[in-house]
Amino acid sequence: MSQNLRGLLPRIACLAACAALPMNAAVGFDASRTDVRQFISELSTTHDFEAGYIASILAGLRSQQVILDAISRPAERVRPWHEYRQIFLTQPRISGGAAFIEEHAARLERTAARTGVPPEMIAAIIGVETFYGARTGTHRVVEALATLAFDYPPRSSFFRSELMHLFLLAREEGLELTELRGSYAGAMGAPQFIASSYRAYAVDGSGNGRRDLFNDWDDIVASVANYFVAHRWRSGEPVAAPARLTNPAARPEGPNQLRLDDTVGGLRARGVEFSTNLPDDAPAQLHRLDGIDGDEYWVGFHNFYVITRYNRSVMYALAVHQLAEAIAEEAGKTRAQVAGTGAP
């Protein structure tokens, strides 16, 4: 074997090993990249972090192709409504919600009395997000956000902002930045708050001076309710109602809109039949979904729109609404059975 070939072998082996790795997995987010350097400069200058500390954190991370794959195909975009619904409207999730309400009855009732957000709605949010805290995510949050901030151009500015919020959140709440685990999009804890929402809407429900959405159920329950209150939840008002069309021209075309750009009276005047005690001038929006037997119509009201502030998806909001109704019904049956046996 020639000396030249001998010298090339280690280089060839190295190239082969690197080629076998997922895209971007072999490199950290170091300051030789312009976007990383700009992020470090902004965070350190604006929020008084040591630039070297930020750089060392980012250099220890790796871009994750699995995260880039996941964000390109969320269930809300790739599944029709009848399949999406089946993910969440299952008997285990409904029974789990009723059990959750029973287990956390005192804190849920206190929170509902203070905020007007019903226990079943809080339970449904946590049930949809993490199956009542059982599935909170396994990705390192800082790594997920860095991957999306620097290697996902369609929403890089949003995720760079979230990465900045994460650094601030860890400092404010005394959290170990590199140990936080969550979803592929950086959502954390039982209610799956992203970093900016954690900072803006999480509250100290237990009164211990911290806001812990990972382990403190008083904080978790109170924070979900506070999120709804901050987005103007209206106590006692309906969320949505099934509808049917008496005028085919009322059929909405194109993607469902989140904003409420119609009214109860306006929809009825155009041939949309549905039941509600809201006045004619109440904001409303007609939504068309892909049901198992064809088009399915729902009218969303103000509180439906509030749910979409948690996740900007009509299917998500409807799944939460229907799960909340099913949980309330199941919990009612459980209470009735207990009362019938005379159990304490």
Write the layout of secondary structure elements.
Blueprint: H1 3-20, H2 34-47, H3 51-59, H4 65-71, H5 75-78, H6 81-88, H7 91-103, H8 105-115, H9 119-130, E1 139-140, H10 141-151, H11 156-173, E2 181-182, H12 195-201, H13 217-230, E3 240-245, E4 262-263, H14 264-269, E5 272-273, E6 283-291, E7 294-300, H15 302-310, H16 314-341
Antiparallel strand pairs: 1-2, 3-5, 3-7, 4-6, 6-7
In total, the number of strands is 7
DSSP strand content: 5-15%
Q: Could you say what the CATH topology of the domain at 240-327 is called? A: Lysozyme
Structural class: alpha+beta
Q: Radius of gyration in whole Å, from Cα? A: 24 Å
Unreliable stretches:
1-26
Q: What's the level 1 CATH class of the domain at 240-327?
A: Mainly Alpha
* Main beta sheet strand tally, sense and closure: 5 strands, antiparallel
Secondary structure tally, helices: 16
Through-space gap between termini: 86 Å
Helix coverage percent? 40-55%
What's the short story on this structure?
This protein has a domain at 240-327: Lysozyme.
What can you see in these coordinates?
The protein is 55% helix and 9% strand. It contains 16 helices and 7 strands. Helix 7 packs across helix 16, helix 9 crosses helix 16 and helix 10 runs antiparallel to helix 11. The strands form 2 sheets. Strands 4-6-7-3-5 form a 5-stranded antiparallel sheet.
Brief descriptors of the model:
single chain, 344 residues, alpha+beta, Lysozyme, five-stranded antiparallel β-sheet, two-stranded antiparallel sheet, 16 helices, 7 strands, 55% helix, globular, disordered N terminus
